[in-house]
Amino acid sequence: MEQRARPLRRLFAVVALFAALTGQAEATKSTKSIALDAATLADINAAFDARTLSAEQLTGMYLKRISAYDKQGPALNSVIVLNPKALDTARALDAERRKQGPRSALHGIPVLIKDNIDTLDLPTTGGSILLRGSMAPDDAYTVRRLREAGAIILGKVNMAEFAYGDTHGSLIGQTLNPHDPARSTSGSSGGTAAAIAAAFATFGMGTDTSGSIREPSAFTGIAGIRPTMGLVSRDGIIPLALSFDTAGPMARNVYDVAAALSTLTGVDPADAATQASEGLFRTDYEKHLDAAALKGARIGVARDFKSADGDVDWIMEASLQTLRDAGATLVDVSLPSWLLTLGSGFDRAIHFPEFRVQIEQYLATTGPGYPKTLDDLMSRSKKYVSLGEDGAGPSPWRWAAFKREAAAVDLDDSAYLAVKEHGMPMVRAILDGALKKNNLDAIVYPAQRRRPWLINGASGSSGDSPSAVYLSILSGFPELVVPAGFTSDKLPVGISFLGGAFTEPKLLSLGYSFEQASHARRLPRHTPLLPGQFIRVPSD
Description:
Elements: H1 2-30, E1 31-35, H2 41-49, H3 55-69, E2 79-82, H4 86-100, E3 110-114, H5 141-148, E4 152-157, E5 168-169, E6 173-174, H6 190-197, E7 203-208, H7 214-220, E8 223-226, E9 246-251, H8 254-264, E10 298-302, H9 310-325, E11 329-333, H10 337-363, H11 374-381, H12 396-406, H13 414-437, E12 442-446, H14 469-475, E13 479-486, E14 492-498, H15 504-518, E15 534-538
Parallel strand pairs: 3-4, 3-7, 10-11, 10-12
Antiparallel strand pairs: 1-15, 2-4, 5-6, 7-9, 8-9, 8-13, 12-14, 13-14
Helix pairs in contact: 3-4, 6-7, 8-15, 10-13, 10-14, 11-12
């Protein structure tokens, strides 16, 4: 009897093996692999839905990259602190997804936060040793929204100390550019930019006062948006100048910028500026993206901002041809000469007086033993003249700037009020007029005047070349940066799209269309993929 059963068992075994192999082959046919750095939020969610990826696995991949490249390898020095509960949170979110489905498109998505944005469970230092270990009383509005959406706060990242200057802070020092560690990431959101370019998280949060999202995005070859003033709450953000301060997402692709922005918008009682967005903010920006959006679009070209770098100029001209080839009509736009030269002066006229007052309002929320006034910051900074074993050390340039801020005029001074009440509305009216007169969907210009500068070499100055960075801050209009190409020494260059107030749906769609036509992003060569860092998504 046993002998007669053996052939039948062998038959069953063969059939089972054939079925397993067939199923395996079908699975292989039905999925495709995407490199971790190239996967969009849509790809990641498709992998979550197909059960080929979990939040725990995704978080683990990012943590391995941080371990390999942030303090080792090129040692980018972008991460100040990691969330020790990130993997536990990921596991809990995986269990929640299995039980009741995802909360949003950000469910289980690891995110990095600039260190001037309050987090209840991680220190918020502004990149400064003067606030080392400071714990905020609650989450910033943006962080709370991210958590409610199911995002995983992976950690806090470096920044220019108190958001002013290159990405160097007294707490952990200088952040390096993953495309060339000898080069700057610019500032002040350079820690976010370097980390996202190197694929340490799906996206990150930055803040922008005077170009602090836009220039770091351009310098590291990623996308980033400075939203319309009032679209995103500033609650819980260490201020530099509230007339200019705003927060925004930074990611490796425009889709992720749009999807992240969808979670961040809303009227916040804690920030009166957000009342302007009532009825205008969206929670579905990613749904407006259209690869064909440039067809029939009218794009203004601000040629006044020709850069001081021939490679940047060439990439800009190539980008304009990409816009034409995609079906856009280009219209040259000229701006008043005074606007080209007075932008930085207007910036300082607002920044210095506001920082002196507003930083003290924030410091009042810190715990006992921390500085409470600008004078306290100045006096305590003089006690730190040596280097710590943990990377902490002096920040003379930023600390010297305290004196200029302390000497600024009062907020009722005519010099301040002239810019606040007349200069800024005038810039807004000029740009709004240029957009409407020419029936433009957006205005484009180089996102940077020159390639990323050497950290220990030439400064970031571009001589007499005017900067377009002030257009967005003085008007309050949104500006999107998209990767545009690379210089001859393999450094990234970005293109800026400026639109009218609350035109983010149109702006993001135009930027997405350009991105799909140009494909100008790549993973930095100093932070390559680690083994197995691909995700499997269902095939089309």
